[in-house]
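Hello,

Our lab assistant flagged a job as stuck in the queue for most of the afternoon. It eventually completed. Since we weren't sure the result was trustworthy after the delay, we are filing this so someone can double-check. Below is the sequence as submitted and the structure that was eventually returned. Let us know if re-running is recommended.
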Amino acid sequence: MEEKMRALEWLVQFANMNLYDLGPGDKAKLLVESEEFLFSRSEGFTMQRTSPTFGQKKKVVLSDEWVAKMDELPHRDSPGYWAIIVESQEIIRKRLEKFIMPNERVRKPLKEVSIWLFWNETFKLSIIPHTRSREDYIDLKLFRLFDNLPHSSIQKCPGCEKFFLNASMRKKKYCSSRCMWRVNAKKLRMADPEGYKKRQAELMRKKYREKQAQKRGVTIEKVIIQKRSSRKKEK
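-- returned structure --
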C-alpha cells in the first residue's frame, strides 16, 4: 500500500508540473524518476485468492500477477522521450479531470491491448496486457493504482487549481490551509472591500507592534504607550 501511494503521489505531482518552466536539475530528476514511476519495466502487483485443490479438502493460495507493458521507448535523453513525457502528462491530466467529476461513472474500453497468458508447474497464472497505445498504458496504470480507493481520494484544489491526494479519506476541499486562507480572503475582499482594508490595516499594525516589542524586549502594551507619548511630544 505504501508503494502504491508513493507512485500515486508522484503521478499527481507530475500532472501539476509546468514542464516548460523546469530548470536543468529538475528536468534531469524528472527523467530519472519517470523510468521508475511512469514507464517502469514491470508494472506488476499480485492479487491472491484461495482456491480448492483437486481431490483434496485443504486449500492452497494461487496468485495472479497483472503486468502492463508497452513497446520499447527511446533513450531518456533523446527529444523523442521528452515528447512522450509531455504527451503522457496531458493524458494523465485529462484522466484526473474525469476522475474528480461528481457522479461520473468512468468506463473506458481498451482498444489496443493484447492479453498474453502464461502458466508453469506451480499453477501461477500471469496475465500481461501488452499495448502499443500510450493512452491505454496510462489508463491501465491509473486504474491499477486507484483500484479500491474511494472517489474522494483525488481532488482539485479551488485555490491553486492543482490536483491533490486525499489520503486521509476525510472530506477535504483544499490542498493546504494556505489555499483555504487565500480563497476565504478573496471572498471577504469581494463581499466587503472597505471592511477588508480596515481589517488588513489593523492586522499589519498588530504585526508591526509585535515585531517592535520583540526587538526592544518589552510588551506590546508598552510599545503602544511609547508610540502615543511620542505623538504628544510632536504636537
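-- support follow-up --
The delay was a queue issue, not a problem with the job. The result is valid. DSSP finds seven helices and seven strands in the chain. The chain has a mean pLDDT of 76.
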